Please model this.
Amino acid sequence: MTGPDPTATTTSTPAPAPASTDPGRRGLLLIGVAIVLTGLNLRTAVNSVGPVLAEIRADLRFSSSGAGLVTAVPLLCFAAIGFAGPPLSARYRDSHVLAGALLAMTAGLLLRAVADSFVPFVAGTVLATVGGALGNVLLPGLVKRYFPQRTGLLVGAYTSALTLGGAVAAVTAAPIADAVGAGGWRWVLGGWAVLALLATLPWLAVRAAPGASRATHLAVRTSSLARSPLALTFAAFFGLQAVQAFVLVGWLPTYLRDAGLSASTAGLLLGFNQLMVIPVHAVVPSLAVRPRLQRPLLGVFLAAYVVGWAGLWLAPTTVPWLWMVILAVGLGTFAMALTLLGLRARTPQSTAALATAVQGWGYVLGGAGPLLVGVLLGLTGSFVPMFVVLAVALAGMLATGLLVTRERYVDDEIRAPGAASPHG
Model:
């Protein structure tokens, strides 16, 4: 990104007074509904692939390394496209940016459904990920701006919606594909375009906030966060938790099928896992806003990952439902990370910049996980390296998690000498 001196983190004019940008009760309700509906779409394009990945590979004829790329592309797009969020938000209204992103997602889902080879399938995946990428980076800032006193509630609501959409996508994928027959995966992937299209409607109905301006949008430059130890550590933590989540979503159904379970059972297990995450994501943000609970929560999540992955490695077909429940607890790290984005920055502007940097850089790291698993599977023919990758990522999560749960603010690390105080 280019622009003025990256050390300038705030404008000379403080953030606008709440009264000048307050959309009113009805406006807040509409924005809340739009945020939750957007959350519902953020993982459908990703979670619908894993349960039918074998069928997609068979029809489009690509290797396990190609499958690894397919599972990694969404994360890499979350990183690359996510960085476009703040510039687009500065130039256009947030509501229009998100509506456009969801329309792009609709087109990508349809393109992927009609793809006849690997390249257009990947192209459709990239386009389908636009909505998820921009939603990832813009929603935390919108919550901070419009719901500063209800951050835990709104983060819990849209992360629960995100998980619900992902769960339904995973649960229904294999049964729908089986019911349709040959090429059934195309209906599985393309059907989610309807939900993405519907989610654009409330954003188009959101009115421009009186007093909002380009200057109030772009008060903190993402590039300045490269000098922040907190931002860099947070990005590492976020990326390592993304490795856990996207290896689970992208490769677990294939691993379970390799262990002897049917495609439908593997898809149901993934969907069950995602359903169990919903109450976890609903509760965690309200707990994570309390500083004294952050490290205990981190310990619970990491312990759950250790037990869940060990169980799947040693006894994948014995009590797989139990391992899915335990891993669902571990996935609470995602909700905690989103909550901490709002707690480690003082203003909506710095929150949006931190969300962009952490998720952009983090997803680059996270995308390496599924891709590496695919490459190692192709080289060794074994899933053992997958568990090694997950164990290394867990060790990194422990080290970085202990740092991001310290109470400090990114604004204090990047504020230029003499800049206005970001407090307030």
